[in-house]
Write a structure and sequence with these properties.
The chain has eight helices and 19 strands. With 389 residues, the protein is of the alpha/beta class. The structure holds flavin-adenine dinucleotide.
Length: 389
Amino acid sequence: MTETGRDTTVVIVGGGVAGLTLGNFLLGKGIGCVVLEKHSRDYVEQRQRAGALDANGVRVLNEWGLGEAVEGYSHGDSDAGVPLLIDGEERQWRMSGGDDEDEDDGAFCPQQILVRNLIRIFLRDGGDLRFGAQDVSLHDVDTEQPTVRYRDADGSSRTLTCDFVAGSDGFRGVSRTAVPDDVLTSSTYEFGYAWLSAMTQAPADPLAVLAVHSRGFAARITRGPHASRLYLQCPLTDTVEQWPDERIWNELEARFGRPVESRGPITSRQVVPLRGVVFNPMRHGRLYLLGDAAHLISPMSAEGMSLALHDADALAKAVVRQVEKNDSTLLDSYSDTCLNHTWERQASAVRMTQTMHDSGDTTYEGEFRKQIARKNLETMLEPAAPHAS
Ligand SMILES: Cc1cc2nc3c(=O)[nH]c(=O)nc-3n(C[C@H](O)[C@H](O)[C@H](O)COP(=O)(O)OP(=O)(O)OC[C@H]3O[C@@H](n4cnc5c(N)ncnc54)[C@H](O)[C@@H]3O)c2cc1C
């Protein structure tokens, strides 16, 4: 049976960070929206991925009255207090001069906690969020009234007509495929190495440690009071089978140049190639792409969630302007605005990724690049403490 005609202003495809944030922003302004999420609530609330929000992301949440979504997870000046170990020697990041545009704190909020909070707030405030939406397809996005079809959790076919579609279904979602091939361009940069990324049920203390070492980059970052994520640079050809628990801990210790006391069971591991991808345009007709559906950024920057929040903020403001003032200016400039921001963040992510990796293992880029990267790294750090003679 097909049930037609439940109109809403925005159909949001994908209930991840981008889609749920957009949904909450619109709901707060009384604008109708429906969020369609492929997976179950239980699944998305357990899915562990990123964990860092920059100060801009926290500011955006606060501005829309959604600060409670990251309450208790602020961590002060984003890099201060995060030690960097260079060949085992502890160094501190240079404090910003205070003229930064972001005076707010960032947050170390595990992605599944942020998602859980965004779902709770959205449903509490009367939002329409449909889990288990299968076979979502987008139609007529280049007309005045796009349509979204899907099968609901019971297997019934549904159709939603709307004014706008927000494609926030991640890198492997379906929304982007509604943009014709001859319109959409994709730019990709491959760094040439990967991270072995592993979750462990043991806390990180301090909350984050980064290490540059001739064996390769390493890091440990908090994912809440009882868990942390471990990162080890490795060749693209490595497989998880080559990384048993003991090797992960030994390698972390070797690259940190100090004992790693807090060890727990490793609950998941994957090899993640480091790359940046940007799709252009981020708008086609009445379809607007946001978050990972529009771009991937090197995880070294820890900017994936923050970029998703930026796009949600820009699209929510644009829709509000259209609905409240019948003014399409912000919708018309959405793609350019977000692409400009995305490229800015990609530029800094590439700089940071190369500096942190080229400074260590010369297997990938050689000695010349290592020396250049070390000099660049020095400009970002407080002077080294003089060695006692
Ligand atoms: C495995 C993994 C590990 C990561 N680790 C880090 C990290 O350590 N640090 C970091 O900064 N960033 C990391 N990221 C990136 C970060 O998680 C993303 O940038 C962020 O989640 C982007 O949010 P999003 O809402 O755009 O996409 P997503 O979080 O991917 O949300 C998309 C949502 O759409 C849903 N969906 C997909 N297809 C459909 C469909 N056809 N119909 C309906 N719904 C659909 C998905 O189930 C999901 O809920 C990681 C990403 C992945 C995939």
